[in-house]
Amino acid sequence: MKKVKIGLAYQILIGLILGIVVGAIFYGNDNIAAYLQPIGDIFLRAIKMIVVPIVIASIVVGVAGVGDLKRVGRLGFKTILYFEIVTTIAMVVGLLFANIFQPGVGIDRSKLTESSISQYEETAETQEEHGVVETFVEIIPTNIFQAFVEGDMLAIVFFSVLFGAGVAAIGERGKPVLDFFQGVGDTMFWITNQIMKLAPFGVFALIGITVSKFGLESLIPLGKLAIVTYGSMVFFVIVVFNIIARIAGIRLFSLLRLLKDEILLAFSTSSSETVLPRVMQKLEKFGCPKAITSFVVPTGYTFNLDGSTLYQALASVFIAQMFGVEITIGQQLMIVLVLIVTSKGIAAVPGASFVVLLATLNAVNLPVEGLAFIAGIDRILDMGRTAVNVVGNSLAAVVISKWEGKFNQEKQVA
């Protein structure tokens, strides 16, 4: 009798559904989190363990293959330009949905549960003083080993690009170094495939903890915000990303089918890191060269968080509406300008999207108390944001590959 093999996406979906059921059954029971947390932590820690070695090995091999630092510099310019354009479009879409559907109008704040936001306030104050210039200065690490330990992705990317260029520059003497990093990359991808077998268990535990802590009923008072947020994200993927893909001559839905496992996993865990290695691997199979994939995707974790910036723009207007504060077009444009600055360089900060939102509200004089009301469902909204971020960075790698004339059209999945 032939054994039926269940694909990873279906395994993750089963874990997601079972986690929701268990979380709903044990809602309000703190003991269930104590049992599930270690399972979720093991999976997340295992993924984080392999991210840095994979990024370093992939970039060194990719850049050494390019062999020309000028071409790498041109690639970096095109990548940052693309990121800024698309994230700005994301903010505009967030503002449009907030103004059209007005999710904050008519909300009775007495029926909302307040959550503490004190853990984010100090970080937000630091972020308000953190400008674009500082972000670019901090790309250059003073201690590369410290950057490895802290998971500072931009610093790691910068060092790896220089190292790869150096390996290419010394020619034949660099071949043993290149072979070493090629071996490291292949080994780490094998480890990734083994760790991904734990994904359904990690998803089950993490979503179970979320539902048991907040309960499904936490969505009811802020249901309109959740619906508008997810509606705007679906619109952004189906319409905006599809237009970008068509302009570039790419079939968006082929890319989405290829990455369905990773999108579902990112959604379930609210973590882009969990899928970075597999996304890079699959994009190469889709037709993107290693040099571009290994540069664009990790850099996008700081500069191209489309789902997060869309939500931050929408949530800023939502909070103004909830408190009955009139907000002009000029003020909304100011929100976009502030977000362009505050949303860069803190992807590794816990609760990064929440921190950026807090800093933005402070900068444009909107009531920060509103965050205490939406903190309870932030994890639910974060799931959607993370999935859109993953799709956005994957599409970016393909678009930049096309722009550079390096995309292998024959590999594109039908």
From TrEMBL:
This is Glutamate:protein symporter. It is found in: Cell membrane. GO terms for biological process: dicarboxylic acid transport. The chain crosses the membrane at residues 7-27, 47-67, 79-101, 153-171, 198-215, 227-248, 313-340, 352-375. The lineage of its organism: Bacteria, Bacillati, Bacillota, Bacilli, Bacillales. It is a multi-pass membrane protein. It comes from Bacillus gobiensis. The keyword DNA repair does not apply. Its main location: membrane. GO terms for molecular function: symporter activity. InterPro entries: Na-dicarboxylate_symporter, Na-dicarboxylate_symporter_CS, Na:dicarbo_symporter_sf. Keywords: Cell membrane, Membrane, Symport, Transmembrane, Transmembrane helix, Transport. It holds the Pfam family SDF. GO terms for cellular component: plasma membrane.
